[in-house]
């Protein structure tokens, strides 16, 4: 359930404000055979006297979707991730928003969330890496791929990736920050490289 609240005039206000008049939005989830699902929305009624039993249990809006299976983890994948962990490329070493999770904590989470896999730590590490500061590395590598051609893996626009890294100014996520640059397998930069240097450094990351 998602919680929202309204002020005295019925206008929505952010959750966590001083107003305590909270309403609950019910989101019924129906999971179907074959991996499909439907999530609905049952909005709270503002007029209880006009609410019927049908209104209470019937979603006003539904959205269909389909679950994606978890990727299969090969021994080669696991070996590569183990190397990334050993060299401290993952998990991100200094998340400024708060204390990050240790490898031991992620191992425990992996055993709880992926008990069916021998590579539970590796799955947990990849999910955590995607959803923390390292997401920038993954996004840059995706948005600058040339996907309109048949060649796979898709080549990347290496100079543009390096340009975006150089222009990063999100708090501590800058080209001068050693942790941010380490996530790209690079060292802190004090000046913008030329296009030939840029391509060479990016090639090291994507090879």
Question: Can you summarize this structure?
Answer:
The protein is of the alpha+beta class and 207 residues long.
Trace the largest sheet across and list its strands. 2-1-3
* Rg: 23 Å
Indicate the proportion of strand residues: 5-15%
Main beta-sheet annotation: 3 strands, antiparallel
Structural class of the helices, strands and pairings? alpha+beta
Sketch the topology as an H/E string, one letter per element. EEEEEHEHHHHHHH
Write up what this structure looks like:
- Strand 4 (29-31) and strand 5 form a beta hairpin.
- With 207 residues, the chain is of the alpha+beta class.
- Helix 3 (103-113) packs across helix 4 (120-131) and helix 6 packs across helix 8 (195-206).
- Helix content is 37%, strand content 13%.
- The chain has helices at residues 53-57, 75-86, 103-113, 120-131, 135-143, 158-167, 178-182, 195-206; strands spanning 2-6, 12-13, 22-25, 29-31, 36-41, 61-66.
- Among the domains are: 2-66, no CATH class; 133-206, no CATH class.
- Mean pLDDT is 77; it is low at 1-19 and 202-207.
- Strands 2-1-3 form a three-stranded antiparallel beta sheet, with no helix packed on it. It has a three-stranded antiparallel beta sheet with strand order 4-5-6, with no helix packed on it.
